[in-house]
Amino acid sequence: MNAITYEFILRLFIAAMLGGIIGLEREYRAKEAGFRTHFLVALGSALFMVLSQYGFGTVLSQIAHASYDPSRIASQVVTGIGFIGAGTIIFQKHVVRGLTTAAGLWVTSAIGMTAGAGMYVLSIATTILVLLCLEALNFILHRFGARTITVTFNTDRQENIQTILQRMREKEVSIESYGMQRRETSKGCCYVVTMEMKIKRDRYQNQILDFMAEFKDVTVEEIE
Question: What H or E segment, with its residue span, contains residue 169?
Answer without folding.
Answer: helix 158-170
